From TrEMBL:
The chain crosses the membrane at residues 29-50, 70-96, 128-155, 175-200, 212-236. It comes from the Bacteria. It comes from Patulibacter brassicae. It holds the Pfam family MlaE. InterPro entries: Permease_MalE. This is ABC transporter permease. Keywords: Membrane, Transmembrane, Transmembrane helix.
Length: 246
């Protein structure tokens, strides 16, 4: 998988860039099938388990104005990149694995190789770039949906929105926002690599394609957890300011 990722990155910057139409098509496909689940999931997680628990706890101390500082951690640092990765892996990644797996078992990939077409550049590169780009875009939508869920929580508790946004923007930092986008880019590259690898190495007919899809989504989910933990620990260790109470 790492070798496939290296080949895709090296050939993505090497002309000719004839994969642009396929990139646009894959980007549109991912946007169409995943944007609605992403927004609903981000809003639901922000409003439900996070917002209700946080508001109940802070309400005991009469400190609902501190919801903004908590939501910087909830939305920007954790939920937004995580929800983006899970939705993209579950919806877009599985579709890519099934598509490439079907082409592999029908020997279309081998036919392209026989014709002298670089299968990595024509199949993997546009999907890699499209998933990374869609993860970065979806992170914006996840942030907005998460903040919308927080606003509903604040209004539900009868608190004013002014103190919430004041605490939110005073606690948020550009470093945390940049780290959120960087994490999404890593998630996107990993998801694309795993799903493309499993797809172009599928075998055994329709049953083999099903196994490849199952392996791809399970592997992607495990790596999402590993990357999320490792990235967060490195971020906090190298930037102690993020652990300070603001």
């Amino acid at each position: 998988m790492l070798r496939l990722l290296g080949l895709a990155l090296s050939r993505a910057v090497r002309p000719p860039f004839d994969y642009a139409p396929e990139f646009v098509e894959q980007f549109r496909f991912a946007l169409k099938i995943a944007i609605f689940p992403l927004i609903i999931t981000s809003f639901a997680l922000s409003f439900g388990p996070a917002g209700i628990q946080a508001s109940n706890f802070l309400g005991l101390f009469g400190a609902l104005d501190r919801m903004g500082g908590i939501y910087v951690l909830i939305v920007v640092r954790f939920f937004s990149p995580l929800v983006t990765a899970i939705v993209v892996a579950g919806a877009v990644g599985t579709a890519i694995t099934a598509d490439l797996g079907a082409r592999k078992v029908r020997e279309e990939v081998d036919a392209l190789s026989v014709l002298g077409i670089d299968t990595v550049k024509s199949l993997v590169v546009p999907r890699l770039l499209a998933i990374v780009a869609i993860c970065l875009l979806f992170n914006v939508f996840a942030l907005l949906a998460g903040v919308a869920g927080a606003v509903v929580v604040v209004l539900q508790n009868g608190a004013p929105l002014g103190p919430f946004f004041s605490a939110f923007f005073s606690s948020a930092t550009t470093l945390e926002l940049a780290a959120s986008f960087l994490k999404c880019a890593l998630f996107g590259a990993m998801i694309a690599t795993v799903c493309c690898y499993k797809g172009i190495n599928a075998s055994g007919g329709a049953e083999g394609v099903g196994r490849a899809v199952n392996q791809a989504v399970v592997t992607a989910f495990l790596l999402i957890g590993a990357i999320d933990y490792t990235f967060t620990q490195i971020l906090l260790a190298t930037n102690p300011i993020l652990s300070e109470v603001r």
